[in-house]
Amino acid sequence: MLPPPEPDRLTRLDAYADRFADVFARSDQLRWFRLYLRGLLDAGDRKNAEAIAARVGDSGSADFAQALQHFVGHSPWGAGRLMARTRELLPASARRPPGTWVVHDGVVPKKGRHSVGTQRQFARPLGRKVNCQVAVVVGRDGPAGYVPLAVRLYLPGYWLREQKELAEKTVPAEFRGHAPKAQIAAGLLTELVREGWAADAAVADEGYGATTAAFEQAGARVVTGRAAEAVSARAGREWGRLTAELGFDHFEGRAWLGWHHHAALVLAAAGFLASEAGEDQ
User: Fold this and answer.
1) DSSP for the chain?
2) pLDDT one-digit tens code per residue, 192-215
């Protein structure tokens, strides 16, 4: 579990949050960002907006909880821009060679069928079919360990066909078409390379074979066998730890925007933890 908040740590967190000021158009958005980060990084069991509001704000104020929920679920700020700034602020040790791209699933078990992209599908980390959402995660493993860099929700073709009305209500038009997971991963990888990220090797879960061309274009050789299994296992353990500690799978909204807002906020919290680990790794 994460340690309880201490004054010095909160001061460092506030300074970290200030470096995201230009990501948000309004000062109140920066305030909610700061409070949400505090909630993700505290020792609480639940990391959804309602639970965070009860811990970091006025537990008796419904308006406070609603405002925080609005910030995550509906407020007009860019999840992609937040992820990009998080990557900018990662310590130099996260970029240090040698490095390996790691592409894997991020599974979010769900109840019901009313959340974006949710259906019964194979959850690779669990080894079976479950009712869930599946995210495409691209990270980097290096001397300082594994760090997640980009996340995007996968929308199964069956879900898009069977839930057309729900998709029209919850997914922006530009993301409403079906894209295979390998295509999503290739797009995220291209964005990372454009930003200057690099790795000399790459591993990917089954189902991402078509990402090979993107790896090669990025100058990375595809690793297989025991070496790939070791990297994947290490990344899987770290992703599982971050999911458990930061509540990646705790978002309770149903729409694309809120899901990606929460995911971007979790990556920002993970970035703070990486900065706390220090440059001397």
Assistant:
1) -PPPP-HHHHHHHHHHHHTTGGGSSSHHHHHHHHHHHHHHHSS-S--SHHHHHHHHS-TT-HHHHHHHHHHHHT----HHHHHHHHHHHS-GGGTPSS-EEEEEEEEEE-SSS-STT-EEEEETTTTEEEEEEEEEEEEEEETTEEEEEEEEEE--HHHHHHTHHHHHHHS-GGG-S---HHHHHHHHHHHHHHTT---SEEEE-TT-GGGHHHHHHTT-EEP-HHHHHHHHHHHHHHHHHHHHHHTTT-----SHHHHHHHHHHHHHHHHHHHHHH-TT-
2) 999 999 999 999 998 898 899 999
Domains and CATH numbers, the chain: 92-251 (3.30.420)
The reply to whether the predicted model has a pTM over 0.90 is yes
